[in-house]
Design brief:
about 375 residues; alpha/beta; Rossmann fold; two-stranded antiparallel ribbon
Length: about 375
C-alpha cells in the first residue's frame, strides 16, 4: 500500500525539528508509563515560539507508541459546547465512532490510551469553564488532554487542589544558540550568516524560519538585519518583497485573508484556470500550516499580512474579499450537508474579516443560504 502524502509531510516536519529535549523527555516518560502520570498537559508561550510544532512532534511520538491522537485546532471551532463535541465526533468518526454515538462513551470503551490535542487554546476562552467543570470530569482515565495556547491555564485550573495535582505545565521559550544553529543548518543557511541571523532573531522559532525562507528565495544575498522593534513584521515585509512574482504575492495575501485556502479558492481569487503551482509554493513555506481542508498561515503572519495589505492597498483588499464572497456564495448553492456547513463557516469568516457580517446574514436549516 503506497504511503499517504500526510506521512511525507510529517517526516519533513520531523526532519526540521530541533531542540526541546526536556519537553520531549517529559512526553516520552508519559508515553512509557503504564498509566498517564497526569491528565492535563498545558504547553504555553508567546506567538511564534513553536507550540504547534511541538504538538506535531508529540503527536508523531504518540503514534509511534500506538497511542491514538485526536487533534483539534481552536481556530476552526466556535467557542460553544456543541461545536466542540461535533469536532470531537468528527475526529473520532474515522476511528469507528457512529454519527449518533457519544464520543465520551466511545473513548471509555477503548482499550488503548488516547490523547485529545487542542491547539490555539486561547480561542476557546469563553468555553474554559465548561471544559474544566463539565467536559473534563466525564473523560475516562485512559484519555489525556493536551492543550497549547499563549497563556498558562486560567486560575480555575490551578487553584482547584483536586485538579491541579493532575496538571503538568510546560512553558516554551526561544531556542538556544546551539539549537538555532542546528535549525539554520537544516535549512541550508550558510554558516557565515548564522551569527547575524541569531543576533537578529534571538532564537525566536518563527523569526528563524522566516529568515530561512527569505534566504531560500535569494540564497546569494547577505542577510542584513534592519533596526526595527517588530521582528516578524520586518521579516515579512522583506519576504513579501522577494516572492517569485505578482501571482505568488496575491496567493500569499489571499491565504492570509481567508480562513482556509484551497486550490479552487486560489484559482477563483487569481482568476486562473490552474492554481496548483501557487498552492504547492504556499504549502512549502515554513509559516504555512495545513489541515484536511486547506492551508492557513501562522496567526502572527496572518495579522501582519492583513494589516499591511489593508494599509497599503485597501481597494485591492476589498476586491479580494469581493471575489472570495462570490466563490463562497456559488459553493453554498452547489453543496449540501456537512460540506455546505463547512463552506458556510468559511463564508462567515470572510464576512467578518471584511466587516460586512450583519443582521442580514441568516441560516435556514439544512438548506443554508446567506446574503451579505
Amino acid at each position: 500500500m503506497p504511503s499517504r502524502l500526510a506521512d511525507h509531510f510529517t517526516a519533513a516536519r520531523r526532519h526540521r525539528f530541533v531542540g526541546r529535549e526536556n519537553e520531549r523527555a517529559v512526553w516520552l516518560a508519559a508515553l512509557h508509563a503504564e498509566k498517564w502520570p497526569f491528565f492535563i498537559l498545558n504547553v504555553f508561550g508567546p506567538g511564534g515560539v513553536g507550540k504547534t510544532t511541538l504538538l506535531q512532534e508529540f503527536t508523531a511520538m504518540s503514534r509511534q507508541h500506538d497511542v491514538e491522537v485526536i487533534s483539534l485546532d481552536a481556530r476552526h471551532l466556535d467557542a460553544s459546547p456543541n461545536s466542540f463535541i461535533l469536532a470531537l465526533q468528527l475526529g473520532l468518526h474515522t476511528r469507528g465512532l457512529g454519527v449518533e454515538s457519544s464520543p465520551l462513551d466511545f473513548l471509555a470503551a477503548q482499550e488503548k490510551r488516547c490523547i485529545i490535542c487542542i491547539d490555539t487554546y486561547e480561542k476557546l476562552s469563553p468555553l474554559d469553564g465548561w471544559l474544566r467543570e463539565v467536559f473534563l470530569p466525564q473523560l475516562p482515565e485512559n484519555v489525556l488532554l493536551l492543550m497549547a495556547g499563549r497563556e498558562p491555564l486560567a486560575a480555575g485550573w490551578r487553584t482547584d487542589a483536586g485538579l491541579n495535582a493532575f496538571i503538568r505545565a510546560i512553558p516554551l521559550r526561544n531556542l538556544n544558540p546551539e539549537e538555532s544553529r542546528s535549525y539554520l543548518t537544516l535549512r541550508r543557511v550558510s554558516p557565515e550568516q548564522h551569527q547575524t541571523v541569531l543576533d537578529f532573531t534571538r532564537g525566536h522559532p518563527l523569526a528563524l524560519s522566516l529568515v530561512a525562507d527569505v534566504l531560500d528565495q535569494r540564497p546569494e544575498q547577505q542577510f542584513t538585519p534592519t533596526q526595527a522593534p517588530d521582528v516578524i513584521q520586518t521579516l515579512l515585509e522583506r519576504f513579501v518583497q522577494k516572492v517569485p512574482g505578482p501571482a505568488h504575492r496575491t496567493a500569499l495575501e489571499a491565504c492570509a485573508l481567508f480562513h482556509l485556502t484551497t486550490e479552487a479558492l486560489l484559482a477563483e481569487i487569481l482568476q486562473v484556470a490552474d492554481a496548483r503551482e501557487l498552492f504547492d509554493w504556499l504549502r512549502a513555506l515554513s509559516f504555512i500550516q495545513f489541515g484536511q481542508e486547506g492551508l492557513f498561515p501562522h496567526d502572527l503572519v496572518r495579522d501582519v499580512l492583513c494589516a499591511d495589505l489593508l494599509w497599503r492597498n485597501p481597494d485591492w483588499y476589498a476586491e479580494l474579499h469581493h471575489r472570495a464572497r462570490a466563490y463562497y456564495r456559488k459553493r453554498l448553492q452547489q453543496t449540501r450537508g456537512d460540506e455546505q456547513r463547512r463552506v458556510l463557516v468559511e463564508y462567515i469568516f470572510a464576512l467578518r474579516q471584511s466587516g460586512t457580517l450583519d443582521a442580514n446574514f441568516c441560516l435556514r436549516g439544512p438548506g443554508a443560504s446567506a446574503r451579505p
